[in-house]
Amino acid sequence: MQKATHKLESVKTACDRALAGEDTVLFTAPTRSLFQIVETFSCSVPEAKRICIEGIRSLEPSDFSHSLLQWDAVADVYGLQNYQGFDWYVKFILDKDDCGELLESISFHRPEKDLKLVDGRVLKAKGG
Q: What pTM did the predictor assign?
């Protein structure tokens, strides 16, 4: 069984810092995250950021699916079941800079294909 590359508690710390107003979460691909949330909930971009960060903050180890290589870094993929009434595909990289850890390269959208989680749950593709 594959294990997550990034420590979930460090990811949650970056989320907590972002919710407190720090720039610790970078949406480098907003079309794969923020814009998906805006479209789903008809909300503003700042509200979409909050929804995404709180969703990532709520992840548990059993929500892990797999890791993959993205932009010369390892990204972890999770499935978030029934968050705000929908299932979500969540992907991120935890990176370090001079100020601490940054969460970046986030995908947060409805699953485009079935997503199997380590505990055996399968999140069905959007519309599936």
A: 0.92
Distance between CA atoms of 24 and 63, rounded to whole angstroms?
Answer: 22
Contact 79, 66 (CB under 8 A): no
- pLDDT, residue 106, reads 85
DSSP string, 8-31: HHHHHHHHHHHHTT-S-B--S-GG
CB 117 within 8 A of CB 64: yes
Look up tokens 């079309």; give the residue: 31
Encoded tokens for 9: 């508690």
Model confidence at 29, pLDDT cuts 50, 70, 90, reads confident
Question: How many CB atoms lie under 10 A from the CB of residue 96?
Answer: 9
CA 111/CA 33 separation, integer angstroms: 12
